[in-house]
Design a protein that fits this description.
The chain has 15 helices and 20 strands. It is α+β, with helices and mostly antiparallel strands. Helix 1 (9-20) crosses helix 11, helix 5 packs parallel to helix 6 and helix 11 packs across helix 13 (370-386). The structure holds pyridoxal-5'-phosphate.
Length: 497
Amino acid sequence: MIASQEETPIFSALKDYAKTGVLPFHVPGHKQGRGLPEFVDFVGHNVMSIDLTTVEGLDNICNPISVIKTAEALAAEAWGADHAYFLVNGTTSGIQAMIMSVCAPGDELILPRNAHKSATGGLILSGARPVYIEPDINDYFGIAMGVSVEEVTRTIKQHPKAKAVLIINPTYYGVFSPLADIVRVAHAHGVSVIVDEAHGAHLSFHPDLPESGAQAGADITATSVHKLGGSLTQSSILLVNKGLVDPNRVKAVLNLTQTTSPSYLLLASLDVARKQLATRGHDIVDHTVQLAHWVHREIAEASGITLLGKEVLNNEGSIAIDPIKILVNTRELGISGHEFETYLRSNYNLQAELSDLYNTLFLITIGDNEQTVRSLVDTLKAVGKEQEQYDNIVKYPTYLPELPELVLSPKEAFYSETRITTIENAEGEISAEMVMAYPPGIPLICPGERFTREIIDYISILKKEKLNLQGTEDLTVTTVKVVKNPHQITLSQTLVG
Ligand SMILES: Cc1ncc(COP(=O)(O)O)c(C=O)c1O
């Protein structure tokens, strides 16, 4: 019989173990804090006393049979899936495991171009070939929106052997695609649907929010409970629905890279966050959504800033926006998102979630209350006025670079012989690495793709605006690694036209 959602099997077992006063002759070597007093002084004894490992009574994440198994079953029930697996290396590991579970080397995976860099990692690890869908771009905000059922259907028809479609539910900026309809269409063609739900841990717990991946019938969903569900950073879950995908296969893939020493602090926090969401999730999420609606109403008229709102939806690829995301566009103030973020941090001691060329994103979460959102609103109103000295300059071009030509699969490019060139001279070369601004971590170019002048120019704007560029060995992105002799690569059955 399944335990009750009021229970916390892992957390309770840890507390019991700590209470018994067992004399530990096992790792972790700090032995419940005694070996690291400076750290204990700050974080407290309780935290250290449950930083335990796989010992009798605490189960084993690779082959769970007791408390982890029960906690995972409770999580599956709470999020509405058939199976759940706990992850201690974020949704990144979940996305890579999803791709490796559904694609063998050479198989095709359909995915939107604005997928997170972990999906590119999954392509390299699995050897799968990407078939990109280009989502609509909202020119004013300069962000990618969702993907439509028509686009997915057309792509599946053009690539009938594709093994799976990856959907982001929702995007970092909070945009939802019509997931349930995409699942219906994909399944009708025998194609599985895997869902990046890094930003959707709260969805299953409120009927007014769009459906979660598990609820929409997706085959596998990777959910960052740590981002919006309340657990500790790095703790995520992989949710599996039976049918096109074999849960045992997914577990076998997870065990390839799963640490054998998972942090029980992370596992326990998943347990407690799940209990909270399962038992009180509706009220907590409802309160969060109400606070966010209030913020939207209050700053809708603030001078110089524009909020991402329902007007950008088209009922095709983009059907809803997560109300808890407050995306503020400052182009009419003549400042970039990055400048705005920095200004708020240095003048108001307020830190946003992310900024890009045009926008700054603020998250209202289960950790907010009336006072915190009031401070955000007051600050945004004040800054709008302070910044009026700027003329209404639109500083940047409104485009995002076009999708580059894919010449080699990400894996071929990643494992090919490479050479270094300056980014300025990279036009026409095939990249052997990713370049992206982080956050949001969406690659501008992936391994195997050909550099265009447009991409190089765009990267130089991002550099000028001091956005945090990642993915390259050269952290300054002055040079990039490119494929040395692309025409000599013999593996190239995977050339994509
Ligand atoms: C859209 C998206 N997918 C996946 C991830 C990776 O999630 P995690 O940080 O839990 O590994 C992120 C992280 O920001 C993300 O924004």
